[in-house]
Amino acid sequence: MSAEALVLDKVTRSFGTLKVLSGLSLQIQRGEFVAIVGPSGCGKTTLLSILSGHDKPNDGRIDRAGQVRMVYQQDGLFPWMTVKENIGLGLRGLKQESEKDKMVADLLNLIRLDGFAGHYPHQLSGGMRQRVELARSLAGDVDILLLDEPFSALDYITRLRMRQELARILAERPRTVVLVTHDIEEAAQLADRVIVLTERPASIRCELKINSPRPRDLTNPEVVKTIHRVLTEMGIEKDESLN
Q1: Distance of alpha carbon 107 from alpha carbon 117, whole angstroms
Q2: What phi, psi does 3 have (nearest 5°)?
Q3: Which string of DSSP letters, residue by residue, matches 204-222?
Q4: Euclidean distance between CA atoms 63 and 174, whole angstroms
Q5: Taking every pair of C-alpha atoms in the chain, what is the biggest distance, in angstroms?
Q6: Phi and psi dihedrals of 196, rounded to 5?
Q7: Predicted confidence (pLDDT) per residue in 178-218, tens digit
Q8: Residues 6+ apart with CB under 8 A from 3
Q9: Is residue 79 reached through a cis peptide bond, with omega within 30 degrees of 0 on the bond before it?
Q10: Using CA of residue 79, residue 119, residue 69, residue 148, what is the dihedral sign?
Q11: Which of 177, 156, 145, 169 is nearest to 71 (CA)?
């Protein structure tokens, strides 16, 4: 079995005369958490769409080893379905209702929403809805999670809590994760590796490895160092080593 969950080889994507991705190559290992950051409009979401298979490159190759699910900026819960029914959508392949009920109960316990199975999305807070979305994405035999700014609509304190929740959930149910985010702090706190993209057409400017185990505090030296390095690479902060 290959060690790579996702492989992009010299991927290029253009929309008419607009070139968005330029010869981008990337390997993501099984069980790795990779965050992708870069300037606004550089092509992060396009890259995620190609990784998911919702879009195809003009040139280059992409390989996926396993089933992929997406989690979007705004939760995709169906408002007319209960929490249990929404999570159950990720288990449509199961024929026995008793088995499905047990798995939904396990996932509700995982996201710490026992007792909310019969609630509807409008009865939940934003953070609770995103936890239900994560549970649905983890349901079944999912190998790869693609997260598109999943916490961007939440307030800052809730985002901090959701990062802790995500780290905890992945510790219990490991997956390969690719996170696209504008939040550099979020990337440094969650990822094993941060990929910094250039301006459009995007290529990889640099890759930053973070060795500290999750969950990480914001004051963790590696988190602080990674945030500064990303800001420096994007031209927002000065490189202190040049002073």
Answers
A1: 10
A2: -80, -15
A3: EEEEEE--SPSS--TT-HH
A4: 20
A5: 66
A6: -100, 120
A7: 999 999 999 999 999 999 999 999 999 999 999 998 888 99
A8: 29, 30
A9: no
A10: positive
A11: 145
